[in-house]
Structure formats: C-alpha cells, structure tokens
Design a protein that fits this description.
The chain has nine helices and six strands; from the N terminus they run βαβααβααβαββααα. By secondary structure, the chain is an alpha/beta fold. It has a single domain (3-216), classed as Flavodoxin domain (Rossmann fold, 3-Layer(aba) Sandwich). Strands 1, 2, 3, 4, 5 and 6 form a six-stranded parallel sheet that branches. α1 links the parallel β1 and β2. The structure holds flavin mononucleotide.
Length: 218
C-alpha cells in the first residue's frame, strides 16, 4: 500500500515554517508505506475567491474564474490520503496565502456532490509557527482544523500538545525554529499520531467502504 501524505506550507517565504514542515515530512517518509509530497504556497499565485460560483456552475475541479497556475495543487489535494498543513501565525491566525488557498478550494463541493464522503477516510494535522511563544499558535491551528472539519477530514492532535504542532521561532526563521526543542518535540509526536491514524484509516478502508455504500445507499 502507498499512503500519500501531502504537506502544505502557508508561508510566503522560506523561513521557520518551511523548515518545520520539511523536517516533519522527512520524519514521516521514514515510516513504511508513507510517500510524501509538499506544496509550498509561496510558489503559486493565489488570488482570493470572489464567490462568483463559476466553479460550481461549471462543475469544475478547479477555480473557473482566475487564470492561475495552481491546477496541480488541487489534484494533489484531492488525491492525498493525509495532510499536514503548516502556517506562520499572522495576527493570531493563518496567513493570507493559506486562507486564499482554502477559499479557492470551493470546487471541492463538485466532488462532494458525487460523493459526500469523499474526504471521510482522510486525516489531517496542523502546525503553527509564531514569533512569540504564545502569539496565537493555537488559534491558527483552530483555523486549519476548521478547514479539515468543513470537508470531514479526520483531525489529529498530538500526544503531548493537544491540538497540534506549536513552534516559537522568535522571528528568527529556520534557526529560530531549530532552537525550539520543546516545539520540535511536539511536532515529532504529532507526526507519529498522523502516521498511525493514516494506517488505521487506510487499513480499515475495505470494511469502511462496504459499510459506507450500505449506509449512504450509493
Ligand atoms: C504580518 C505579520 C503578522 C504576524 N503576527 C504574529 C502574531 O500574531 N503572533 C506571532 O506569534 N507572530 C506573528 N508574526 C511573526 C511570524 O509568525 C513569525 O516570524 C513566523 O516564524 C514566520 O514564519 P516563517 O519564518 O515561516 O515565515 C507575524 C509576522 C507578520 C509578517
């Protein structure tokens, strides 16, 4: 079996968040059957969703309004079995890049029209990196968790910090994150949970799909 774990970095630059995500994916890739991929949102044009609903009317898999170079990120998102989304903390919340990415995923509803449970066998975890020790990491993680809940992605926290990975970078990019031993330890625990939950969901999939067909009458 191949379990596809997709990491998404919400930072507009190569800094602390990208480093933490890279480390996390490197760790995850060491486990059996886990294949990792990464999307760095800084490499994409992510204009904001204008709620024109053209994607819904045209039953598109992508944003049908903006001409952007981001079709591959949609496909990667649809195909992944597990997600690890990391964001810097901006004003106690996720970055504009990340929230734009979330909003541009509105065509997800076209996929869920066919299969409302499309995301129910997937799992996600969140990491937030702030310049201040308690600068809004938890509220940022809540935003990412809210995104997962919207589509029915299972959410996992850590076994050490409850809701996810919380890093204190001291505004010092990669060096700052590397120096936060406590935070990195929390992230490592989170990866273990994420990987274990991925096995649970993927290996339970046969029975799950049988029952889903019965219960959802599809
Ligand atoms: C516009 C802006 C707002 C920020 N707001 C916060 C904040 O509310 N809380 C916090 O802890 N850090 C805040 N920071 C600091 C960043 O979260 C911190 O430097 C983080 O490590 C940046 O991640 P990066 O190195 O991956 O870009 C803010 C930075 C910017 C540019």
């Amino acid at each position: 079996m191949v379990i596809k774990l997709l990491g998404i970095c919400g930072s507009p630059r190569a800094g602390a968040t990208e480093h933490v995500l890279n480390e996390s994916l490197e760790k995850a890739a060491k486990y059996e059957e886990i294949s990792v991929d990464e999307i760095l949102l800084k490499n994409y044009k992510l204009p904001y969703c204008i709620h024109c609903d053209k994607c819904i009317r045209e039953e598109s898999r992508y944003c049908a309004h903006h001409d952007v170079n981001n079709k591959e990120i949609y496909e990667k998102f649809y195909e992944a079995d597990a997600y690890l989304i990391a964001s810097p903390v901006y004003l106690m919340n996720a970055t504009g890049q990340l929230t734009s990415f979330f909003n541009l995923l509105r065509p997800v509803w076209n996929i869920m029209k066919e299969d409302p449970g499309y995301f129910w066998d997937k799992v996600g975890a969140a990491i937030a990196v702030g310049g201040t020790r308690h600068g809004g990491q938890e509220t940022t993680i809540n935003t990412i968790h809210g995104f997962y809940h919207t589509y029915g992605v299972h959410v996992v926290g850590g076994n050490h910090a409850y809701n996810g990975g919380t890093i204190w970078s001291k505004d010092n990019k990669k060096a700052g994150a590397k120096a936060d031993n406590e935070g990195m330890n929390i992230v490592h625990n989170l990866i273990e949970r994420l990987v274990l939950s991925s096995y649970q969901l993927q290996y339970g999939k046969k029975r799950y799909l049988e029952m889903k067909k019965k219960i959802m009458k599809k």
